[in-house]
Sequence to fold (146 residues):
Amino acid sequence: MRQRLTFGLGVASAVMAAAGVLAPQAVAQELAPGISCEQFSCRNDTDDTYRVESVVTCSDGAGQIPVVTYARPQATTKVFAGCPHVTVPGKLQHHPPVPNPDGPGFIYPPPTMGPPEVEITYPVLIDHRSAEVDNNPPQRPTGSAG
Fold:
């Protein structure tokens, strides 16, 4: 019994080690000295603001979207990327037969097209392309109408 337990633990350890080697590792991409991006965030270890240019690939064939993020000094900044909604044509709808009001039997209505459908897409991949010092980023709107 003890040999089976030892063998089972050995196999489990080997499988876990292999999975760790084969699993994709998240690696921060250094775009400039002190500026690194990983997934949807960028770390700025400098005293300057950087403009980071990235390209986001959206799900469901919605395409690629250019994104500009301003990475604040000495901070980690989230990269916000919105993907567009995609409108797809409606599906063919079949209708059940209805009794014929003029006599025996049924009337078979022709199929019709249903309404178009809106599919929500979301970011699935991001490619950070460049980072440049930009200490004068555009001002954010304050939200007040004046």
